């Protein structure tokens, strides 16, 4: 991998003098969806697939970017003196956004860079290719210029750049999972306090399988921001009758007793999902700790149903993948993962059922949707690193 990246860098930028090679993972969320901007809990893990970056400092203030995933775009040029989002800048708005965010926070970047990226996460699949690029960029800046920031800060800076530079009001889950990733562990994170603990993913004789719907989506033009404001409105309505800071402060019973304060049926459903999903996530982590994988799987299934019926972020592609998965013997749980509206599902599948899972779900999906899904058996991996 490293040799191929270096060869490509030399090809694009002339030589490899002064380069370093970096990696940041993608992430998959096991449970706790659309809870991270509602003060709830999430339970994601970093993956072993992600984004590779080859970078070097320049003597001037120019920024030159090249992505092996978008070779048709060629080298996209910019400058530290022009850190603004432009439509034509395409994917480079993510690394540029992080550079802008460092400068906003008083960390001035002294010189330009040449940066080549290659991602083996399918783009726009809901496995956080963009957050991976953000954390990777922050990691490179810290490595090159010695900024005094922790991995947790890299996550917060990545989120800040996505919110303020790229206009997506995402929560902290993706960047946090990526920056803090640990092999074979998922991260149980309270998004209200950023308190977290690692929990080993011990699935006995089963594995995590991701199914990618291949329906493309961009968070910016999806209904993501709309869901977020629906929840904010519902919270404001509830705050007139109960003393809470976030929807994550409510248990199911208190929600049910006060839900009539929310004056629209749609907002009631959105808030219900946020409250119940948060409680499900807490229970799921307890179940995993007790090695009750069956209960963990049932909670994943319930999560999907709530995202489908109350939060309404699934769509025919994700519903087909999940509903077909539920039919396969040896599937312990299956749900959509990430923002929704396309993207991926995550399933826990017994080892000896994986082959038939991929075949059956794949066939049914293609017959109904008209194009194929892709399947990946994945493992939880480490956070960002320098490749030796
Ligand atoms: C996207 C966002 C996250 C989170 C999920 C939904 O991945 O970036 O912050 O809100 O959607 O759980």
Task: Give the gist of this structure.
The protein is α+β, with helices and mostly antiparallel strands and 388 residues long.
Structural description of this entry:
With 388 residues, this protein is an alpha+beta fold. It has eleven helices and 13 strands. The chain has helices spanning 2-13, 93-104, 129-145, 151-164, 173-179, 224-238, 252-258, 265-289, 293-309, 316-327, 354-369; strands spanning 20-29, 41-42, 44-57, 62-67, 76-79, 113-119, 185-190, 195-200, 206-212, 331-337, 344-350, 374-378, 385-386. The longest helix has 25 residues, at 265-289. The radius of gyration is 21 Å and the shape is globular. It starts with a helix and ends with a strand. The model has no long low-confidence stretch (mean pLDDT 96). The chain binds alpha-D-galactopyranose.
The ordered H/E elements are HEEEEEHEHHHEEEHHHHHEEHEE
For this entry, what is the oligomeric state of its chains? single chain
Q: Which small-molecule species are bound to the chains here?
A: alpha-D-galactopyranose
Structural class of the secondary elements?
alpha+beta
Q: What is the CATH first-level class name of one domain?
A: Alpha Beta
Task: Name the beta content range.
Answer: 15-25%
Question: Count of helices?
Answer: 11
CATH topology of one domain: Ribosomal Protein S5, domain 2
Number of strands: 13
What percent of residues adopt helix (DSSP H or I)? 25-40%
Q: What order do the strands of the largest sheet run in, or round the barrel if closed? A: 5-4-6-3-1-13
Whole-number mean pLDDT:
96
CATH architectural type of one domain: 2-Layer Sandwich
